[in-house]
Design goal:
Length: 210
């Protein structure tokens, strides 16, 4: 069994499209939004590194180890980040959603939960995955809390697991969502996205949701 790239996954807040070199300038602008590459607990490409990072992800995609996406705001078309299916095991099947980053101004707008909804829906409902995994640095508490809000459960911690550009060897926290848990997770994610859609509508006076 081969898990093929699903192509474009379109949502109401965010659209995920296959990563391409033509996205370079938009991705540079997105990573400059908040200087995301300066975060020490994750790997986010700097403007100077972006071309090599796109090539790296496309090479891994050609080798079958990754399926890469560029994220855009659906309303404006502005590029806001990157995400992937990775650590693909088509024999189970099982995948990880990772290597994700988003421009600082997109945080709290609902684009990230909808991005996860689109990816999880494809993984569970098209590929019929048994589980979908998420990994993050033990010290990256915002990421850990965001993964837990998705409905994922912690599987464990891989201690002294991988070295980051900042120079330290991180402990990696592993979370997952199983196929049996997906229906409940989907309901929760759909409700979160709907709240953001309603808050962003012209008739709404509600503040932006977190």
């Amino acid at each position: 069994m081969t898990l093929r790239h699903p192509g474009t996954l379109a949502g109401r807040l965010v659209t995920l499209e296959p990563l391409a070199m033509e996205h370079h300038d938009g991705l540079v602008a997105a990573t400059e939004d908040g200087e995301m590459w300066r975060l020490t607990y994750t790997r986010i490409p700097s403007p100077d590194e972006m071309r090599d990072e796109i090539r790296r992800r496309l090479r891994l995609q050609d080798e079958g180890g990754m399926l890469a996406f560029t994220a855009r705001r659906t309303d404006t078309g502005a590029i806001i980040g990157m995400t992937t299916f990775m650590n693909i095991d088509a024999s189970v099947p099982r995948v990880e959603i990772g290597s994700t980053w988003n421009a600082e101004s997109s945080h709290g707008t609902g684009t990230n939960p909808e991005s996860k909804l689109l990816l999880l829906r494809h993984a569970f409902e098209v590929w019929e995955c048994s589980a979908v995994e998420f990994r993050t640095d033990f010290f990256n508490r915002p990421s850990r809390e965001a993964i837990e809000r998705l409905g994922a459960k912690q599987d464990g911690i891989l201690r002294a697991h991988t070295r980051l550009p900042a120079g330290y060897v991180r402990d990696t926290v592993v979370f997952s969502i199983t196929r049996a848990e997906w229906p409940g997770v989907r309901v929760g994610l759909e409700a979160r996205v709907l709240r953001h859609v309603e808050a962003a509508s012209p008739d709404s006076g509600s503040p932006r949701l977190g």
